[in-house]
Write a structure and sequence with these properties.
This is Hemopexin. Helix content is about 10%, strand content about 40%. With about 220 residues, it is mainly beta. The chain has a domain at about 55-205: Hemopexin-like domain (Hemopexin). The chain is globular, with a radius of gyration of 17 Å.
């Protein structure tokens, strides 16, 4: 009998539709990810779970070798953050590049925050929201500037964050356990506000989601 604790989502990404590739969501747990394909007028269709270095071979021996705390997309690249390091690569096979968070987010003076990011999400071509526990800030990728650190309402501590493409108002899903909270960007451009105090179940959006299940049971057969 496996007594491992239930696993939680560690990061989430949605890659927009490009050419013949459909919109694709990834729900991560450590070095594994469960992939979902967006149907034209239907729900997300689950695909088998795989190791990151099987999905993106260029991550082998970098972010694909160890669990990490956050992931986001920016300018066509995927960024995986683990402690004080960040790995970037393009899904089309360009080799991964590893950097220090101190070099990427040099404007973040709070080194405890900068080197302990637990969730991240791009919200536009120039904005990335970074989270540590219930604290968050906005990083301007164009100017290399950050806003003051703010706190999510009700002390929410997201396991993962994910930008929702094509939403009328800039929108982020925050994952916590088996719940998904929807937040939108205020007019000030720096504050995230909950759309509702009532979360949605992760299983209502993603069938067979890798949450609240033992890690071994979920991935031992890569399914």
């Amino acid at each position: 009998m496996n007594d491992a604790p239930p696993a939680r989502i560690t990061s989430a990404l949605i890659l927009p539709k490009t050419g013949g590739t459909p919109e694709t969501a990834y729900l991560f747990q450590g070095v594994f990810a469960k992939r979902y394909i967006k149907t034209e007028h239907g729900p997300w269709q689950p695909q088998p779970a795989s190791r990151l270095d099987c999905i993106w071979p260029q991550t082998a021996k970098t972010a694909g070798a160890l669990a990490y705390g956050a992931a986001h997309t920016y300018n066509g690249n995927i960024w995986l953050i683990r402690g004080d390091k960040a790995t970037s690569f393009r899904p089309d096979g360009v080799p991964a590049h590893e950097s220090k968070t101190a070099d990427i987010f040099s404007d973040i003076r709070d080194t405890t925050f900068r080197d302990g990011i637990t969730a991240a999400s791009a919200l536009s071509d120039t904005q990335v929201f970074l989270f540590k526990g219930s604290s968050y800030l906005r990083y301007d990728t164009r100017r290399g500037q950050t806003t003051d650190i703010k706190t999510l309402p009700h002390g929410l501590t997201p396991d993962a964050a994910c930008w929702i493409p094509d939403s009328t108002t800039p929108t982020i899903h925050l994952y916590s356990g088996t719940d998904i909270y929807t937040y939108q960007l205020d007019k000030d451009g720096t504050t995230l506000t909950p759309v509702s105090d009532h979360p949605e179940s992760i299983f209502s959006l993603y069938a067979d989601a890798p949450a609240n299940r033992p890690y071994f049971t979920l991935f031992c057969c890569f399914g």
